Structure formats: structure tokens, C-alpha cells
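User: quick one
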Amino acid sequence: MTAVLTWLIEPLQQEFMVRALLVSMLVSCVCGLLSCYMTLKGWALMGDAVSHAVMPGVVIAYALNLPFAVGAFVFGVGSVALIGYIKQMTRIKEDTVIGLVFTGFFALGLTLISKVRSSIDLSHILFGNVLGISASDILQTVVISVLVLSVLLVLRKDFLLFCFDPTHARSIGLHTGVLHYLLLSMLSLAAVAGLQTVGIILVVAMLVTPGATAYLLTDRFDRMVWLSILSAVLSSVAGIYWSYWMDASTAGCIVLVQTLLFLLCFLLAPRHGLLAQRRRSPRASRFPSA
Amino acid sequence: MPSRPTPFVGQQRISVRNLCVDYHGVVAVHDATLHLDAGTICALVGMNGAGKSTLFKALMGFVRPSAGSISINGLPLRQDRRARAVAYVPQTESVDWNFPVNVHEVVMMGRYGAMNLLRLPRPVDREAVREALERVDLWPLRQRQIGALSGGQRKRAFLARALAQGASVMLLDEPFNGVDIRTEKLMIELFEQFRREGRTLMISTHDLAHVTSFCDQVVLINKTVLAYGETSSVFTSENLALTFGGLRLEGEPTPAADPGAPQAP
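Assistant: Done. Structure below.
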């Protein structure tokens, strides 16, 4: 018993650990909530694209001594707008355009970081640096999180309807174009927040895995939101502890816990899990009905 | 029994004058004109790509006409959209049935346009949803996830949403696709009730048997409105030959999902 307590309490005596835990819990709430919409809308690839595309923005912002969130946001939204524009103007399919745009932006970021003299550590951007997060970065993360959470909470039903049936949403006078770009803007902001914790490469996991996990557990959206946030927060806390005691990559551990939670639900979820499906009908798991 | 809504006022529901719609220079609908009165069930008949979906989109205000005008209940489209007079009932194939919402929530979505920003249901919204669900016999199933409904129940859930919206014009996209005889009968009964209340229904269909059985009016479309009016006078073999471009043979054209179903971006 005392061993467990020591295991839990000892890291909390380090200030950087307390900070890391609080920041990543906050970011998990934001990403957990947003990931429900990403999962339902089928925007996982878009999340991947936006998170990579913010890189040049971060580098430029640092070089100009601006808050990095500003640069990241401009490039995140810019990439989304560019994807939409190219898709509209050409006959190239969306997934191709996404792949094309985000790698272009990412390459720009890489090139900039190698040429612009600055104190940025590439590995911190790529893999996160939650254990060494600075006070100003914490402030930015808090501001972003509060903003995204407020928008998502106020417009949660509009976003839900937009994901479910955009035609109906539009026919009753909702501005689906605005909702589309607003949700993508929230995605850009959440990617910036998540970047602090797990870095550009793995932030898409924060934006997808909790929602997908929760989707296997329930058929109600409200419950899905809570379960998603819960699994995201739990993964962050467990991942940070794990990385502390194993002296392993924090980002890696957080995402690994998320993935393990997903696998657990994939197997054991009461109705949509593999075992439940097998139990109902051995054929159903191979040929899921519509 | 729930109280029936009061009949809608006004005589002319849909008025389309010389409508032209094109997409990047490709003509989808050219010089289409039609007028539908209150309390009409109208079949919209045409081949795939004939402009049925474009006409629906235009009636919902999703596409900007390159020429001509549309009014709903005597109001230009912009104002009418604020009144949420037009409801679109999608093809069941175009809905994600795994979506984590239940029947009550889907029908409540019909009320969103009338609610405040937070979309918190007021007693009047709850009442409208309850009444709509009772009318289509889905009140006992309101807590079910939509995917757990049978084919016929799914159709009725979306009809209930149009009812809850309070729409005086309903656009139905292939409502009889994949429906058994019993459900079809039930739906036609509902449609006839809607007609008595002064609503106007426009039903896009491939199934010509329906047209003669319960539709008072027909609009035949092939890039333009070829003919419209009373079923008995419009539904002639010459007109049908025109509609199906001379391809009309014995029996019905093969029903197929329309790839151009209305979609918001």
C-alpha cells in the first residue's frame, strides 16, 4: 500500500511534474471533447494534416518573438483553407489534397527550422516537451483551452447536427459553411495545445483515439463526450507517471496508454466490442450488418 | 390524441418561374416553371441526372439560380428559410445510422432553427417533438439509437423531424426505396394526412405505380419541366417518352440511388 502511495506521491514533489500533469489534463479535456466530433465527422486525416501544417507557423512565431499559438493558428487555418480551395478548383480527391498540402507545410517548417536561428529545439516540436513547459507556454495553453472548450460547449448541438446531417442543418437556416470552418479552427487550436504535450507527430492520436474509444462504449453522444474526456485524461496521467518511473518518452507513453485503452475497449466493449459481437453471432463479427 | 396543427395559411406553396441553374457552365436545369398549391402531393419524375436533386437544392436555397425566381408560401427563398417552411427528408441510404443519437434527439433537430443559440428545448419544442413522434407511432421507441430501428421506422423518424420542424413544404427523396408493402401503406396514409392539413409534398420517385395511385400532381423533368399538372392529364405515354428520352420501355426504369442527392458542404 505504502509502495503504491510512494509511487503516486513521489513525482508530485517535483514542480515540473505537477505542471506537466495539470497542463496535459487540461489539453486532454479539450482534445477529448473535440475528438468526438473528429471521429463522427471522419476528420482524422484532417487532424493529422492540420497538426503537421502548424509547424512553419510555430517556427516563424518563435523567430518573430510572437506567441507560438498565433503562428500555429494562422498556418493551421491557412492549410485547411488551401485544402478546401484546391479541392474545389481541381478534380483531385480530398485525401490526396490533404496529403499534398500537409507535407508541403511540414517540409517548409523543417527547412525554416534548419535555417532560422532560434532557440527552438526541433525535437520539442516533433515530440512535445510537457515536462519542460515554460510559464508563458502554460498561459497560452490555458487561453487556447478555455476558448476551444467554450466554443465547443456553446455550439455543441449545432456541431453535432452538422456532423450528422449537414443538409438538414442548412435547410433550417444554420450556417454550415461557418460551422465547417469554425470546427476546423477549433481543430487547429486544439492541435496547438496538444503539440505542447505530445508534439506534432502524435497529436493526431489525442484528436482521434479518445473519441474512437468512447464511440465503442456507448450509443449516446453525451456519454461519448464524457467517456472520451475521461479516457484522454486518464491516459495522460497514467502516461506521465509511466514515463517518470520508466524514464521513457512522455509523448510515447501517453499515446501508448491511449492505444491500450482503445484495444481494451475494442475487445471488451459491452455491445460493440469484438467479444460481444462474437457472442451474439459468430458471423456478425466478420460481416457487420449495416 | 394529440391536437392536429392548424391548417397552414395561404394557397400557393411552391412557385418556380423560369428557373435556370448551372454548375460551372454546365446546365442542370433550364427554364423550369411550376406552381403547386397548398394540400398537394406531387410526384417529381425524371431520370438520374434529369435535375431532380438540383430542383430540390434550389427549393432549399442551396444553389443560386442563374436566372428565374422561386417563392415558397409567397415569400422569396431567403425569408422563407427564416420561417423554416421547407423540410428535406433524405434517402435512408444517405444517413449514418451508427451515429450516437436516439430517435427523440433526431426529431428534436427539427426544432433547432426555432431555438436559441444553445438549442435548449423549451416546453413548446418538447411538445412539438412528442406530437410528431406520436403521429408516426414512434413515441414508445424514442430512446432507441436510430440504428436500432427497422427500415420503416427509420423513414418515419425522419418524417417526424419534418413534422416537428412545422414544415408546410416537404421534399422527399425516394421515400419508397427499400420499403415493404406495409410500411409503404402507412407512409401513404401519413402523406394523405399531411395533404389534408394543407402541406405540400414533393416526392422524387422512380416508381411510376405510385404516381397514379396517390399523387394528385406530377412534375416531369428532364433538364427542364416538360410537363406539370393533374396526374391524369400529364401522365401520358407521350410525356413519359419525352421524360425518359425515348428510353422508356415496358415496365419501370431501374431504380438507382441518385448520386447527386442534396448535400451541404
